[in-house]
Amino acid sequence: MDQAQPEIVFHTAALTDVDRCETEKDLACCINARGTKVLAEAARKMGAFLVYISTDYVFDGKQGLYKEEDAPNPINHYGHTKLLGEKYADCVARTCVIYGSKPASGKINFALWILENLHKGEEIRIVTDQYVSPTLTLTLPSCFWGRESGS
Fold first, then answer.
1. In the chain, domain spans
2. Does the structure show a pLDDT above 60 at 43?
3. Does residue 79 contact residue 59 with C-beta atoms inside 8 Å?
4. Among residues 27, 34, 2, 31, which one has the least CA distance to residue 14?
């Protein structure tokens, strides 16, 4: 960051494995909360604006279709640690089940995972009692995915 001197920092790193966050609570807190604090301090030191990619897991899921003004109420450690990280950011983008074309990172999203497994004829097992409002990658800033604007 010292070399690049960014004006805006998109903080996308996180421990997103919800089950692992429950079993490795210290690691989840270190990455999702304390790591965010360290990055925020570095960004502020150079006058950069920090955009934090958070999650709908900061809510309890009882209502759905949450708005910015709705009160968070995480029911698992992942949601709790992401909420802790939010307080250090200048701007918070709460995403949910990000889908779209495969990003440069190579990490496959839920929709592509389903399509790939069905194409291979493999059985998939998913929950049937969860409702979400997925986030299309095209609605996120193009720099978030490491592409040039307009491509």
1. 1-95, 99-146
2. yes
3. yes
4. 31
Distance (Å, whole) CA 65 – CA 71: 13
pTM of the model: 0.79
Mind giving me the DSSP string for 49-112? Answer: EEEEEEEGGGS-SSS-S--TTSPP---SHHHHHHHHHHTT-SEEEEE-SEESSPPTT-PPPHHH
So which residues are the catalytic ones? 78
pLDDT digits (tens, 9 = 90+) for 54-69: 999 999 988 878 888 8
CATH 2.60.120.260 fits 1-95, yes or no: no
Using the predicted structure, report yes or no on whether residue 145 has a pLDDT greater than 70. Answer: no
| Distance of alpha carbon 49 from alpha carbon 141, whole angstroms | 15
pLDDT grade, residue 151 (50/70/90)?
very low
Residue 8 to residue 62: CA distance in whole angstroms:
34
